[in-house]
Structure formats: C-alpha cells, structure tokens
Amino acid sequence: MSAGNRTAERPGPAAVERVADPPAGTFRNGGRFALLLGAGGVLLLLLSVAVAVTTGPARISVPDVWSAVTAHLGFGDSGLSPIRDGIIWDLRMPRTLLAAVCGAGLALCGTVMQSLLRNPLADPFVLGVSSGASTGAVVVVVLGVGGGAVSLSAGAFVGALCSFALMLLLSHTLGGSTDRVVLSGVAAMQLFSALTSFVVMTSADAEQTRGVLFWLLGSLSGVGWSEVVLCSAVLAGCLVISLAYARTLDSFAFGQEAAAALGVNVARTRLVLLCTTALLTAALVSAAGAIGFVGLVLPHAARALIGSGHRRLLPVTALAGAVFLVWADTLARTVLDPQEVPVGVVTALIGVPAFVLILYRTRSTP
Fold first, then answer.
1. CA–CA distance from 312 to each of 20, 21, 37, 261, 301 (Å)?
2. Alpha-carbon distance 37 to 21, whole Å?
3. CB 101 within 8 A of CB 231
4. Residue 238, helix vs strand vs coil
5. How far is the C-alpha of 273 from the C-alpha of 36, rounded, in Å?
6. DSSP codes, 66-123
7. What is residue 128's DSSP assignment?
8. What confidence tens digit (pLDDT) does each residue in 161-194 have?
9. Is 305 helix (H, G, I), strand (E, B) or coil?
10. Phi, psi of 139 (to 5 degrees)
C-alpha cells in the first residue's frame, strides 16, 4: 500500500467534527432541546437556591433572601434585623452556593472521567484524589502539622495533589494506558486510605475522630464566602477547558486508537484533562470533604436526557449536579434537625440504587 493511500485512510482533525456532529435536522432539534433544557436548569437552580436558603429553623421568606442579597450587593437597605441578615448572608447563602458549585464540579469531573477512560463507573475519585485529601486533612487536624498555620482545607488540598502525583507516576511507569490509569488510581486510593486510618487509630482522640469522620463523609457546615469564591473560580476555569476539549471527548467514544487516527494527541489530551479534573476535585474535596456518587450518577442521567455530545452534555450535567446537591444538602441539614447528617450519606442513599442500576445495565458490556 502506498504512502498516499495510508495518508488517505487517516483523516485529519476536521474529521472529528464530522464524526461528532449528527445530521443537520437532528442537530437543530437537539440544539433547541438543549437550549430549553439549559434555560430550565438555570431557572430550577435559582429557585432551588432561593428555597434552600429559606429552609431551616429560622423563618425566612424568599423576599427576605432577595432583600438581603440586593442590600449586600449595594442596592439599598434590606430592612432585616442583623440576626436574620446574618443567617441569610453569612450562614445559609454561602453554604447553599457552595453546594451548587460542588455538585456542578463533581458532575462535570465525572462526565469527563467516564468519557476519557471509557468506563461508565468512573467518578471524580477514581484518581485517588479524595483519599489523598483525607490524609492531608487528618495530618493537619490530628497530628497538628503546620502548627496551626495550615488549615484543614489547605492540608486536604496538598494531600489531594500528592495522591494525584503518585497516580501519574505509577501510571506512567506502568505504560500509561487507560486501564493502568484506573489501576494506579485504585492503588493510590488504597494507600492513602490506609494512611488515614493509621493516623486516626494511633493518634486521634474520640472528639477528633468524630470530627474527622464527619468531614470525610462530606460536610458543608461552617463554610464561608472564601471557599465559595475559590471553588467557583476553579470550576469556571475547568469548565472552559472541558468545553474546549468537547469534540475531542466525542472522539474518545470510539477508543484511543480511533481518536489518534482522527488526529487527536491522546497523551497530551489525557494529561490535560486528568490534571483539570484532579485540580477541580482537589479544590472541592478540600472545601466540602468527599461527597460520593454525584460524579458517578449524574452524568448518566444527563446522557439519558441530552445524548452524548459533550458540547451540550457538559453544561447540562453541571446544572443537574448543582441542583441535585443543593437539595441533598438541604435534606442533610433539616431531615433530623437539630442534628445534621453528612451530605455524603444523603448522596450515597440516593446514589447506591442508581449505581446498582448502572451495574445492571452494563453487566453484559465486555
């Protein structure tokens, strides 16, 4: 076979767009549905945030929330008492917004990981990031590393990055294929989980153990505006990067070899997207703990609604994750009031049945 024929069999990058795009009529219908779904998702998210802020022991109405928000944005006086204003602006609003950001970020990471690794059971924690964050948090809280100058969130973030770096080193050493990435992530997860258990068992008292375990299950209590701003900025940047690679992710549906034949630099794409998802997951876990099943279940639900084209799938999944976690956190802090349930427990109770359904649907997949 001549070199010219071989070249003709290997389509260039433009072929990715032709493969990813549906027929013109389908695209128009799908695009219109995606636009309506996205607009409905934004409205539902705004309504969910407003209702979530009003839910709790203190009686607060939606107009009260609106007055407090507009007042803090510089548009007049809220007319609320300092206590009610503080409940809205300093306690409930940052917590609810961080729940939305965490839900959107975890769902986004899950979508990218499942497409990149071609594994329907992949989630943001498959890289071992959550286990590393747990170890970093425990080292700061229990062992007192940093002498009080390092916060729990900072320790968790550093631990998450250390775990991700170990995963990258292991996967590169073992060949860098998709299955090696997953296995390296599992190895890093088990190692850092063992380190966390060892530190807690040997050095923590009863009160520290209870606090650490509560955080490890996912908790949004006590968060402030600094966490909201930081996580929102990281989410925005990672969403932009993910959307820039949307067509490339479409090509991964045919496998890495097919993606390479379409002109995709597989190694570079994998590294960029793995680093992006790891950074976002590390930021979210450091602020809210390990909240499971959001990144596993929501991408599948979004695909059932919108299809697998990532230009539409990524933003819709992020909106779905935001709405889901806002309501999950609302249940977590109110269902057993005055006692609070870790939000990870609520997401697990909802996510486990969905996880079993996914296993059932993929049981015959090779």
1. 12, 12, 10, 24, 13
2. 19
3. yes
4. helix
5. 28
6. HHHHHHHTTSS-----HHHHHIIIIIIHHHHHHHHHHHHHHHHHHHHHHHHHT-TT--
7. S
8. 999 999 989 988 887 778 888 888 899 999 999 9
9. helix
10. -60, -40
